[in-house]
C-alpha cells in the first residue's frame, strides 16, 4: 500500500494534470496560427468522395474555441483553489473531511425532530416500536452489517448479535457504550506462559472439555492445571469476564473458530480485534435507536 502513498504519486498526478491543461492551450494557440493550404484554392483539402463530396478546411467554430479557453481558465482556477497539486491545500481550504462534516451536520439537523420523539423512550419500549425498529434496521444495514452480517449473526471474528453471548455485556447501557466508544479486544500470545507445545495442546483439549466439545480426556486432565495461566482473564471456571471483555469458554460459542487447531492457534499467536467508535458518525439519538434495535435482536421474544 505504501507504493501508492509516497511522494511520487502526487508529483506524478500534478505533472500530468498541468501538462494536459498547458498542452491544450499550446495546441489551441498553434492551430490558430497555422494556415492550411488549399490545393485547389477553394478552401478544400483535395479529398473527394462520391464524385462531388469535398472535405472543407474550415477553422474551429468560435464558440468551440471559447469553450476550450473557458475550460483552461477554469482548470487553472481549480488548481489554485482546491487541493489538486500535490501537497498544496488550495486557497479555499476545502477538504473532503470538512465537506463531509458539514453535510452530516445539515443532515442531522433535518432528522433531529424525527429522533427527538424516541430520545426519552426506554430501550425495551423502543425495541417494540415498529417505526423505530425500521429506522434502527436501516442504520444497522448501512453501518454494521458489513461486519456483523445483514442478519446480525456475525461471522468468524465478528460477534453474533442475536444470541445472549455478550463479550462486554448485553444490557442497553453496555450496548450504547460499545456503539459509542468502540471496543478493542486483545488476547496476547500465551504459549510461553502455558508451557511447551504439548502443554498448549493439553490446554486446548481442556478448553474443549469445559465447553462440552469432543476432546482427548487424558490431555484435558493434564491441561487443567496449565489452564491457570489463562484463568486471570477467563476465570478459573473459564466463564470469562465481561468487565474486561474476556470470552466465556464454556458455552460452545467460538468467535475465532472451533476445534483443537483453532484454539491452539489462538494460544500460540493471540489476536487483537477492534470495533471502531461510532460517536463521530451518529448523534446520541441515533445511537439510542440503534441500541434499541441491537438489544431487540437478542431479546426479540417480546418484540415480534
TrEMBL record:
Free-text cofactor note: Binds 2 heme C groups per subunit.
Binding site for heme c 2: 187, 230, 233-234
Pathway: Energy metabolism; oxidative phosphorylation
Domain of life, per lineage: Bacteria
Cytochrome c domain residues: 131-211, 218-298
Subcellular location, record wording: Cell inner membrane
UniProt: heme c 1 binding residues: 144, 147-148, 275
Gene3D superfamilies: 6.10.280.130, Cytochrome c-like domain
Biological role: C-type cytochrome. Part of the cbb3-type cytochrome c oxidase complex.
Assigned protein family: Belongs to the CcoP / FixP family.
Name of the featured protein: Cbb3-type cytochrome c oxidase subunit
Source organism per UniProt: Methylotenera oryzisoli
Gene (UniProt): ccoP
Amino acid at each position: 500500500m505504501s507504493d501508492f502513498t509516497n511522494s511520487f504519486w502526487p508529483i506524478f498526478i500534478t505533472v500530468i494534470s498541468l501538462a494536459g491543461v498547458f498542452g491544450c492551450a499550446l495546441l489551441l494557440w498553434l492551430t490558430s496560427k497555422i494556415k492550411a493550404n488549399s490545393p485547389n484554392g477553394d478552401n478544400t483539402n483535395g479529398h473527394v468522395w462520391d464524385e462531388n463530396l469535398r472535405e472543407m478546411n474550415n477553422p474551429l467554430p468560435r464558440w468551440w474555441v471559447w469553450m476550450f479557453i473557458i475550460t483552461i481558465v477554469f482548470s487553472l482556477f481549480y488548481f489554485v483553489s482546491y487541493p489538486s497539486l500535490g501537497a498544496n491545500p488550495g486557497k479555499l481550504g476545502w477538504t473532503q473531511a470538512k465537506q463531509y462534516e458539514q453535510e452530516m451536520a445539515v443532515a442531522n439537523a433535518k432528522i433531529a425532530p424525527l429522533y427527538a420523539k424516541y430520545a426519552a423512550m426506554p430501550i425495551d419500549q423502543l425495541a417494540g416500536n415498529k417505526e423505530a425498529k425500521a429506522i434502527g434496521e436501516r442504520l444497522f444495514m448501512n453501518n454494521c452489517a458489513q461486519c456483523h452480517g445483514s442478519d446480525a449473526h456475525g461471522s468468524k471474528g465478528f460477534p453474533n448479535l442475536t444470541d445472549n453471548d455478550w463479550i462486554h455485556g448485553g444490557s442497553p447501557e453496555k450496548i450504547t457504550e460499545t456503539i459509542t466508544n468502540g471496543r478493542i479486544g486483545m488476547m496476547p500470545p500465551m504459549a510461553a506462559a502455558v508451557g511447551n507445545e504439548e502443554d498448549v495442546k493439553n490446554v486446548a483439549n481442556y478448553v474443549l472439555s469445559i465447553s462440552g466439545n469432543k476432546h482427548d480426556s487424558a490431555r484435558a486432565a493434564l491441561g487443567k492445571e496449565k489452564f491457570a495461566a489463562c484463568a486471570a482473564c477467563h476465570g478459573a471456571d473459564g466463564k470469562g469476564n465481561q468487565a474486561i471483555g474476556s470470552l466465556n469458554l464454556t458455552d460452545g460459542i467460538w468467535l475465532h473458530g472451533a476445534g483443537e487447531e483453532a484454539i491452539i492457534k489462538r494460544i500460540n499467536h493471540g489476536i487483537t480485534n477492534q470495533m471502531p467508535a461510532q460517536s463521530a458518525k451518529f448523534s446520541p439519538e441515533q445511537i439510542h435507536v440503534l441500541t434499541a434495535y441491537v438489544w431487540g435482536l437478542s431479546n426479540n421474544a417480546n418484540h415480534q
